[in-house]
Amino acid sequence: MRNASAIRCTPPYRRLEIPNSGLPWTEHKMFKFTFQVEPDEEIASAALKDEETKQAPDANGTSTVEKETPEVYPCEELTFDPSSLSNKTAINPDVTSTFQPAPDCSIEYLNQLALLDETFTDDIVTAESDHSDLVPNRYEGGLKVWECTYDLGQFLATSDERKAELHGKKVLDLGCGAGILGIEALLFGSSCVHFQDYNKDVLTKLTMVNYDLNCRTTNETEAEAKEPPTAQVKFFSGDWGSFTDQYQHKYDLILTSETIYSTDNYTKLLELFDRKLEPEGVVYLAAKTYYFGVGGGVRLFEQAIDTDGRFQHKVVWKCETGVKREIVRMTRK
Fold first, then answer.
1. Residue 20 contacts by C-beta under 8 Å, 6 or more apart in sequence?
2. Which residues of 161-175 are buried (b: 16+ CB within 10 A; e: fewer)?
3. Tens of pLDDT along 190-207?
């Protein structure tokens, strides 16, 4: 293993409240990981981290720049191995944070202090070294818990009607990252929850550990304290298109947060919704109204929904102060 270039950690966290929501969240203060690199697990980022361009002659014989179709990671179902998480069973409270969307629901999840000694692939190390939250088609920001995840988690937990929507249902946590929304669904009685994120490392070193912390007992004392949820749980890494084509699962609810920042993925995302959603199913999508500097946002995605023609949509929650954020509910027409 080789160490990544020196990346330092300043005091990383202070407690805040999301404006007008009363919802606590954690602000990252220039936090950077001292990752280690595992070069053999995924394609080296030196060759593939950016979308490449090439020179091609046009009709007049002059050269123009054309974008190559970016390579993506194919979808893969990952095996959850509790024994591989044995070193996580007694976790220092300093490396976990707590999200409590409602009095009867509390979710522990690893914060970034827990990931300092982890080994990651080149793509993730490169993104962090470049002070970037994402590298398109290489790393999609799954190690960070984004604001809209908390928005949607609280929205689902603060209404008996919406909690009932989760009970006994098949749920997909799409672009799951830390897995907070899927874990919440399990705690509220969903019968099946599948977690999907682009990067394997995110799922194996963050999502699965958080699932283990909240949904599986590890000793007799914990077993007496709470009864773990009984549900079918699976984990999938890779590209949405590949996931849509390779697996035939259908869901009553698809929960997704901060997944519409790139307009290039709107067609792929809508196709996934159409093929993965049960006839009476519901999508809850939480996102920023505008993603400045990236190009996406709720208004543009609504236009894509209308053009596509397969879904109806309604904004069911808004935060109008600070960074504007919304939750959209989608159903079939």
1. 319, 320, 321
2. ebbebbeebbbbbbb
3. 999 999 999 898 999 899
Are 286 and 152 contacting, i.e. CB atoms less than 8 angstroms apart? yes
Torsion angle defined by CA atoms of residues 299, 143, 128 and 81, in that order, rounded to the nearest 10 degrees = -140
**Section 279-283 average pLDDT:** 98
Pairing of strands 325-332, 277-288: antiparallel
238, 273 contact by CB (below 8 A): no
Residue 65: partners with Cβ closer than 8 Å, 6 or more residues away: 53, 54, 55, 56
Residue 2 in this model has a pLDDT that exceeds 60: no
CA-CA distance, 288 to 261, in Å (whole number)?
8
Looking at residues 30-34, what average pLDDT do you find? 35
Instruction: Give phi and psi for 97, each to the nearest 5.
Output: -120, 165
pLDDT of residue 228: 54
CA angle at 314 for the pair 312 and 317, rounded to the nearest 5°: 155
> Does residue 287 carry a pLDDT above 70?
yes
